[in-house]
Specification:
Elements: H1 2-19, H2 50-61, H3 83-95, H4 106-122, E1 138-142, H5 145-163, E2 171-176, H6 182-190, E3 194-198, H7 210-222, E4 226-233, H8 245-254, E5 258-262, H9 273-279, E6 288-292, H10 293-296, E7 304-308, H11 312-318, H12 351-361, H13 363-386, E8 390-392, E9 400-405, H14 410-422, E10 429-433, E11 436-442, H15 450-468
Parallel strand pairs: 2-3, 2-4, 4-5, 5-6
Antiparallel strand pairs: 1-7, 6-7, 8-9, 9-11, 10-11
This protein binds pyridoxal-5'-phosphate (PLP).
Pyridoxal-5'-phosphate is lined by residues 77, 144-146, 180, 182, 233, 235-237, 262, 264-265, 292, 304.
Length: 469
């Protein structure tokens, strides 16, 4: 049978790619528009062979690939993809369902509920976020942390409009100047006119100060506005800073606002007891929390887990069923339809890949995997500290190391980073910390070992030497 043969050959091609990844430059160097010049301008009239297609993949696609699974990919945040997740995704493709409602395929809905309870327990989240926690809460898989932020904001908006009778134009959302741009986008989509980006300071570790938040909410209320949503962060995109979630959620609750915890990247580190004790206390004060299993936790994109303490307002915001359109009228469903917890109707069977990862690795191995990245990052930090041409720009956390060339101007720092990336041997991106250009090294690739990080650091030192010479 054709699929059997081609399928096996695809598995071979996948393994070959993964095993020879290091021969590719990490970052693609093609110019914009390179591909259309190389490909025909129409689809073929008659079938082509897999061999022809795979030859084109090598010749035309690979040059335009930035290799996110490369062990020397340190840009943005990792999006690691594992064989167990690929197997789960393959099965999902084969089953080919559109599981919008429970009866669209009961197992798809029910596995998602069970697996998100597993995932929540694995991260030691408070019971109120479990489907079995008794508060009407539970988890759902969203495509991305941006979607999770949007639906949490829509739930908060509905709650404020229905419960407090607030006028839509009076609603104010709060986030910090370190927040991901997805908060601004969520406000644009939801028609929220007021978004306060509360200022953070280096002295507070770029975290939200409860007193500053209190003052901002009080001032807005005095002006006749309604605080309704707080986006708080565990692991900012820029430096992996952590807000004091319990304290700021208490402020938000006093002013009637919903607290959403964006732990898109860092949330999975809650599975490590030491990390949990340090950064993940008091989460029961939040109304919703999101983390991407598709960043650090071996689940192929897309798999953002969103947990809510009480799904009622989410369903009120997103369900077309009339019973949810009226505040206070709580109907317990016979079964759960995840279409009422998200923006689109259709949804893939994404719980499979998470289930496969949790089972084929087991909790112990995943914890060891994440700890390995933390240890690798800590070892890099030691090397940075030992070289006085460099300085750390922020406290390293969750595998993210932010550093810069001591005394370099932004222009020099930018040029230096570009030389690292142009080498093809590593790929890093920058952020701005305290107004200054800063290089970020996010460690967390599936294949990233100490030898990769160490050789990248040697390359960086060598380029710094050439600069001085
Ligand atoms: C990566 C990230 C996001 C965006 O995640 P998507 O899943 O791509 O939408 C949002 N917030 C934080 C803190 C992130 O690290």
């Amino acid at each position: 049978m054709r699929f059997r043969r081609l399928g096996y050959s695809m598995v071979d091609a996948i393994v070959d790619y993964r095993q020879t990844l290091e021969k590719y430059p990490v970052r693609s160097e093609v110019a914009s528009g390179y591909l259309a010049k190389r490909l025909p301008d129409q689809a073929p009239e008659t079938p082509e062979t897999m061999e022809e297609i795979m030859a084109d993949v090598q010749e035309h696609i690979m040059p335009g690939m930035t290799h996110w699974q490369h062990p020397n990919f340190y840009a943005w945040y990792p999006a690691n993809s594992s064989y167990p997740a690929m197997l789960g995704d393959m099965l999902s493709s084969a089953l080919g369902i559109i599981g919008f409602s429970w009866n669209g395929s009961p197992a798809a809905t029910e596995l998602e509920t069970v697996v998100l309870d597993w995932f929540a327990r694995f991260l030691n989240l408070p019971d109120c976020f479990l489907s079995s926690g008794g508060s009407g809460g539970g988890g759902v898989i969203q495509g991305s942390a941006s979607e999770a932020c949007l639906v949490a904001l829509l739930a908060a908006r509905t709650r404020a409009l229905k419960q407090r009778g607030a006028a839509p134009g009076s609603l104010v959302a709060y986030a910090t100047d370190q927040s991901h741009s997805c908060v601004k986008k969520a406000c644009m989509i939801a028609g929220v006119e007021h978004l306060r980006l509360v200022e953070t300071r280096g002295a507070d570790g770029w975290a939200l100060d409860p007193a500053t938040l209190e003052a901002a909410m009080t001032a807005d209320e005095a002006a006749g506005l309604h605080p309704f949503f707080l986006n708080t962060l565990i692991g900012t995109t820029s430096t992996a800073a952590v807000d004091p979630v319990a304290d700021v959620a208490a402020v938000a609750a006093r002013h009637g606002a919903w607290t959403h915890v964006d732990a898109a990247y860092a949330g999975v580190f809650a599975c490590l007891p030491e990390q949990h004790a340090q950064h993940f206390q008091g989460l029961e004060a939040a109304d919703s929390i999101a983390t991407n299993a598709h960043k650090g936790m071996l689940v192929t994109f897309d798999c953002c887990a969103l947990w809510v303490k009480d799904s009622f307002w989410l369903r009120s915001a997103l369900s077309l069923e009339p019973q949810y359109q009226f505040a206070g009228l709580r109907h317990e469903e016979e079964h759960l339809d995840y279409k009422d917890w998200q923006v689109p109707l259709g949804r893939r069977f994404r719980a499979l890949k998470l289930w496969f990862v949790l089972r084929l690795y087991g909790a112990e191995k995943i914890r060891a995997y994440l700890q390995h990245h933390l240890d690798t990052a800590a070892a890099l930090v030691e090397l940075v500290k030992r070289d006085d041409r460099f300085e750390l720009a922020a406290p390293p956390r969750f595998g993210l190391v932010c550093f810069r060339l001591r005394g370099a101007s932004d222009e020099e720092s930018r040029a230096f980073l570009e030389r690292i990336n142009r080498s093809g041997k590593a790929f890093l991106v920058h952020t701005v910390v305290g107004g200054r250009h800063t290089i970020r090294c996010a460690i967390g690739g599936v294949q990233t070992q100490w030898r990769h990080v160490e050789s990248t650091w040697r390359l960086i030192q060598q380029l710094a030497e050439e600069k001085e010479a």
